[in-house]
Amino acid sequence: MPDITPNPSKEWVSFAPSGASPGFMCYYPYLSAREWEGCSGPENRSCWLRRKKAPFGPEHGPYGNGSEHDDEHAPVGVRRYYTYNVVSKTIAPNGVPKQAILFDGQYPGPLLEACWGDELVVTVTNSLPHQGTTIHWHGIRQLYSNDMDGVPVTQCPISRQDSFTYRFRLTQYGASWYHSHYSLQYAEGLAAPMLIHGPSSGNFDVTVKDTLLLSDWVNSKAETAYQDEKDTLIRGASTDSILLNGVGQNTPHGVSRMFSNNDIRTAYPVTAIVPGKRNRLFIINGSVATAFVFSIDAHNFTVIANDFVPVRPYTVSSIVVAIGQRYEIIVEAHDHPSQISGNYWIRTQPADGCNRFNTGFFNTLLDPPSIPFDVRTGILHYDTPPHSNWYSVLPSSSQNEMAIQSYDCADLEIQSSLIPIVPWQVKQPVNDLATSTFYAAHQTDSDKGLGVKGDYAHWLLRLDPVTEHKTNTSWHKPMWVDFSKPTLLHLDNTSDPYANIIHYNYSPSSSKGEDKDLDGYIYMVIDGALLPSTSPNATKNSPSTGGPGNEGFIIPPSAHPMHWHGSDVAIIGQSNSPFDPLRSPQTWNLNNPPRRDTVTMPAGGYLAVAFKPDNPGVWLVHCHIAWHASGGLALQMIIEDGTTGNGGEQIYKVLGRQAIGGLREGCSRWEEDLKRGMLGGDRVAMVEKEDSGV
């Protein structure tokens, strides 16, 4: 694959994709410009590349919206280089100064931009004084590049004043974000948007300039807020305010923010759209602990992708965006805006059951509804206003409460309506469902096996005690990683009970040699029924599980936005009711179910997913509420073909000797830095961590 150059060959297919930054171009060097062309236009957005004359196949050629996300179906682009510096800097995105951790000193960090089929080469330098870091590329499948996933189970942290280069191919397209996966660093601001240009399932005229990054914000240090998560009485950390593209204020409900110099742009991010046109924009939730209901006053919009999965166009008036989720939408602008200023409110209201702020909870089910502060976080602006001083006039638009489709953070009705363009017909599982059904649980007592720093009650994913007993398995610990021993480099020793490792083999030899296993699916259930106990001998009705006589230990049922690394997952079942292993599977949808990489498990209900175990490596599954992941609500999947046992030989063969050698060198530098840190008094910050590490 050629590097991108200042003067690319005129023989390459090249074009500027809709919504690209000034001067940005997509290049396809292995496709001759004499025979191929870019074909994405306002009435043909499903097409990306096609032959100019196509006598041997469909007009679109092989590269369009109906392609699978793998090496075979993605075009070959160019190699693009980016460099980022992780630094500590004081910022005040909501008016309260805070020492944050940032990419290149800004929040959100710089937009990472590429094209479908490109290879990214991203060098990250750690300039933090007291911590390591790792950077994860959220939703990127990392097909055959598990070593580039950027999590503490695949690499040692990048040591101080050192760099690590991530290199991976983009077989998907759409919007996402990149963020730290080292303890609670992304809660300190280490997050940024990412846009991969490619085809779309809905036609549009123009693309809005900026992605919309929804987030919450913590005024204190995240590790300080995390103390409330550990506290046996408080049992839950809180955030302070909500931001849109890094701008926000914790203003009272219904009160507009203060702005300076008679310019509303100093208080609110402005999203400009073109009147009378179909305007495409991207929504990303990069929060610590908050799901949002996104809406625009007086406008419906059409969803055309969720996460990196194109879907059949579906028109809504609002959408619930869980942590880690993304949406590609089209806003059909009015020919003549009803607001004289051309300004309308963008609202990002925290969803019921998926928020916790120091000023209170958002809950629309109460009478009156609990809305602690204002949710008008941005302004949609028509780009040709009737007067020139539009920026001095706040929107006067109002929200149609009847148009909001749901404030429930699980939002099952809309989720089930998002039908993928590329269908999956989910087959029967190749694994045992009982040993892949995990309770999202909370310990009743402090965990004495994790030292002084880990001596508190944790979140965790655990097996049913009955299953543990039947299979002679012990699986009831929170996840807790050793930064110096990433699982990917220690596949010959995976017995640590705090590693939370489950093995999935996908070759015919792993299951009676049946051909169906070649394209089989792994089923996994995350059960939200209340089971906080970690006693291996507990049963669902015993006092040690929070039943009668132990009410003081009960934490209310919680929704969990679960994120799968290494694969999209098909949502075959999702319910507000508890999981029933006999009846629930009879209701599951196996015929092209909704598909994405981050899915909410409803509070007290369950989530059932299926995925193809065809990407060898060590992959995390975790709750994307940062406090819960830090508490240990995570597991690791080791996926390999089963022909070489569980020692990782096949994974190492796929990744290559050079990749594994690079990881080992990184760990050596981390160990050297640890020694320097201990001598210099940084042991607490670098070694004695008080969370899971992920």
UniProtKB/TrEMBL annotation:
Q: Which family does it belong to?
A: Belongs to the multicopper oxidase family.
Q: What keyword terms does UniProt attach to this protein?
A: Copper, Metal-binding, Oxidoreductase
Highest taxon above the source species: Eukaryota
UniProt region (Disordered), positions on chain: 534-557
SUPFAM superfamilies xrefs? Cupredoxins
Q: Which GO terms describe its molecular function?
A: copper ion binding; oxidoreductase activity
Biological source species? Rhypophila decipiens
Task: List the taxonomic lineage.
Answer: Eukaryota, Fungi, Dikarya, Ascomycota, Pezizomycotina
The protein's name: Multicopper oxidase-domain-containing protein
Ranges of Polar residues composition bias in the record: 534-545
Q: Which residues form the Plastocyanin-like domain?
A: 87-200, 211-351, 559-641
Instruction: Note the CDD domains from the entry.
Output: CuRO_1_MaLCC_like, CuRO_3_MaLCC_like
